[in-house]
Write a structure and sequence with these properties.
It contains no helices and 6 strands. The protein is an all-beta fold. The two termini are 38 Å apart.
Length: 116
């Protein structure tokens, strides 16, 4: 058992089932457990687009540029912790003109979470 925020070092040994007289190889594994309070995404991918700046889980403001053929942003992500809730905050925008990178207007409720 590894407590939240803790770690444990384990030894794993591998040897040959065909030659039991051979030398076993030893591996040391440092097993770490998240605290459960993590709120970052490990990675984000938005299909048919490019992201500025490039993804970095320490940054939280990005601009997504879709191709002309794409009407919506389809994204996948990996949470930093399985207990996290993730939601999308976006509002419809009109066409973007060259050189004007407009951000989407927020529709978040109180405290940054969707109302309801």
């Amino acid at each position: 058992l590894v407590e939240p925020g803790g770690f444990r070092i384990e030894q794993v040994f591998a040897d040959s089932a065909k030659d039991p007289s051979g030398v076993a190889v030893s591996y040391s594994l440092n097993v770490s457990r998240l605290t459960g309070n993590e709120t970052t995404l490990r990675w984000v991918h938005i299909e048919g687009s490019f992201l500025l700046p490039d993804w970095d889980s320490r940054s939280s403001v990005y601009t997504v540029y879709l191709t002309a053929e794409q009407d919506y942003a389809k994204f996948t992500y990996q949470r930093g912790d399985n207990g996290q809730s993730v939601w999308v905050d976006a509002a419809q925008e009109g066409p973007m003109h060259a050189g004007t990178g407009r951000r989407l207007a927020s529709e978040r409720g109180e405290g940054g979470r969707p109302e309801g």
